[in-house]
Amino acid sequence: MSLLKExxxxxQTLPFTKGRTKDGVLQLINTLVPFFALWVLAYFxxxxxxxxxxxxxxxNAGFTVRIxxxxxxxxxxxxxxxxxxxxIVGTITGILTLFPYSQWxxxxxxxxxxxxxxDKRGVGDLWILTTDEYLESSRWVRFKYRLYRNxxxxxILGPIYAFIIEQRFNRKDARRKERMNTxxxxxSIVAITAVMIxxxxxxxxxxIQFPIFLISGSVGxxxxxxxxxxxxxxxxxxxxxxxxxxxxxxxxxxxxxKILQWITGNIGYHHVHHLNPRVPNYNLEKAHKENNDLQNxxxxxxxxxxxSLKFHLWDEKKGKFIxxxxxxxxxxxxxxxxxxxxASETVKSRKHNENTG
Length: 357
Hints:
By secondary structure, the chain is mainly alpha-helical. The chain has helices spanning 3-12, 21-45, 50-75, 83-97, 101-114, 131-136, 139-148, 151-165, 176-200, 202-226, 243-249, 258-263, 270-275, 284-289, 324-356; strands at 129-130, 253-255, 299-301, 313-315, 320-322.
């Protein structure tokens, strides 16, 4: 991709970066009001049927995802024009979704600045090994990596660890403001939980909130996973890495049904978001549709996205993801070649010895 085209692509998104207070407030209303209303409805449904409660929890998990998208936009200072408004709303929505605003903002900005850069993995992203790294790893590292990539671990246990445990601690080099925000978030979560338990009881609270948390958490990790880990994604070492290419080739357009697109706050237009994170979620679709250069990007549908579950390792030579099964076949083939070479060398050595003997 030429430097001129890169500049033009980013320039074309500038008209869509202006956050609008009216749209932000409207989105807060049509997200938070249904969330709290459904929570109350779920509580009263406990006296009718827990299956009904679970059904309501599934719907409310969708609104929790939507709350997270608002939080996410606030972290990018894109949801409102006002920086202060973004910080306040971001902190509140962070508390509701169990994320400390300042800390997650830092990690996520690192993710945006290094997505697809093989030299800068490890902050705000998922664990990815190249095929060569996997081959060179010890059996213990391979075991941990395969365990990490197991769908149950990644999408069920993952949210429990990442959201409940990992997010409660500050990173080592965090500044005072960031540390204080994390403490504020933790204290607020404990206080809200205590109040809710006093109001409805710990059993009712867990029966309602845990399914909401688990489903929304799994969906959140799935969205993050599928929008960067599709077959022909983009990963390069820093010498070859390019920001715009990483955005439009390494971030998918997740084409979802309209209702799911609304619930997930248009985050399926991930290529636009990575190209310019200052575009608020309510402008992403418009930015995509009004720029022809953004039409020809990796597109993933609800059906084809399921294929990403078999992508585990990045093959640098082929420039695509492969699965553990293909890696296993390669290892067997490599061992077979080594045995053939060894056998050939042995035969040559014997003949040489016989001739010289």
